[in-house]
Design brief:
With 100 residues, the protein is an all-alpha fold. Helices cover 64% and strands 0% of the residues. It has a domain at 12-56. The chain has five helices and no strands. Helix 1 packs across helix 2 and helix 1 crosses helix 3. The chain starts with 11 loop residues before the first helix and ends in a 14-residue tail after the last helix.
Length: 100
Amino acid sequence: MEIRIVVDEINYGEIVEKCIPLVRDKLKEKEGTFPKFISGIANLPPSMAVAMIEKLPQETKDEAVALLINKNKDKLIEKAEEYAKKNDITLKISDLIVEK
């Protein structure tokens, strides 16, 4: 069975405010343009970081979210299955694929 979730809106500012402190140290060690960009804005006050993210083109923001979800899909699957189990629902997710 395949279940598809269509997302109409994501508040990127909220994601930045909540996630940057969590990934700041990990991103300093990573290679590539996106990790370096996020690491650079992670040291800014949250309001400035949000303002920078909001100015990015929508396609860039969507690509970033797809990249982050796809890179962390095992953790996301695990969390979804744990949530289901806590609510007495049997759920086994074989894959999580995000396309922009």
